[in-house]
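User: For a reading group we're discussing how well predicted structures match intuition. Take Aspartate-semialdehyde dehydrogenase. Before you show the prediction, I'll give you the sequence so everyone sees exactly what went in.
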Amino acid sequence: MEQKLKVGILGATGMVGQRFISLLENHPWFEVVTVAASPRSAGKTYEEAVGDRWKMDTPMPEAVKKLVVLNVNDVEHVASTVDFVFSAVDMSKEEIKAIEEAYAKTETPVVSNNSAHRWTPDVPMVVPEINAEHFEVIKDQKKRLGTTRGFIAVKPNCSIQSYAPCLAAWKEFGPKELVVTTYQAISGAGKTFKDWPEMVGNIIPYIGGEEEKSEQEPLRVLGKVENGQIVKAELPKITCQCVRVPVLNGHTAAVFINFEKKPTKEQLIEKLVTFKGFPQEAELPSAPKQFIQYLEEDNRPQVAEDVNYENGMGVSIGRLREDSMFDYKFIGLSHNTVRGAAGGAVLCAEALTAKGYIEKK
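Assistant: Thanks. Here is the predicted 3D structure of Aspartate-semialdehyde dehydrogenase, as structure tokens, for the group to look at:
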């Protein structure tokens, strides 16, 4: 790309905003030129606004330290400085819907990490390896918004990344029923152990709204575009429990699955390790070379060993075996704030750029 696209981050001071900042350092296509946050942070430098709340393992990039934080509510002003924005704002669902549409109506594409628009019928919710064709619905969204280049695209919930890719890889065998339990890291709540000491040595068997997302969002990802909107898939039926565990990064899923056609274990593994999609074919900058790895060891995948597979953009599967009640069972692992949040959104933006949906203003 001859000239980098100018990027703004909405909600830049929060944990996902910080992850965007760190992932976009030295990105070959995108340059962060604008950071926006709540009015209380506006007017400060990014370094001042974040203060001692920098939660990433790597240092804050020098390029953003002196950027002056803009008020995220000054939509026209923020939009005038960028080619597109990533959204990680911390607001109510209705406020997020409204502000993301307001940015889109300034002819600024919005790639969102938030859940507010995941069920808006003409907003694509995309895991780029699985359903990049859902971007087709953007043309219908633009008609509704009255825009020529502005639109909203979202990525799905972090909790589904460790098992939904398997469903796509195994599509020909007809996955029909899943029982899933997710064991979710505290960074999914925007926390560290310093912020949340009661999580040390503890498990909380409830994460608000998460079970419904984990059961329904894979069906939308596996659905299809019909008459200008996304129609979710009928199968598989999914039931899920979501548990918060004392892990910083990495969501693990324990999955039981039934198929319409009974595949062999070897067939299932072969489909996982050869599964690829548009990001691999187009060699997008953030794309994992191998999206899904299968680990043969009985004690893998483990967060400590495997969460950073493919720089946190890959999915690790293990312990696939026949079950006494279901056809098979397995364990999945994905990085919840990289593949599951900011990294997944960056990959979406790369796919949208490669397909011509995001261009310089």
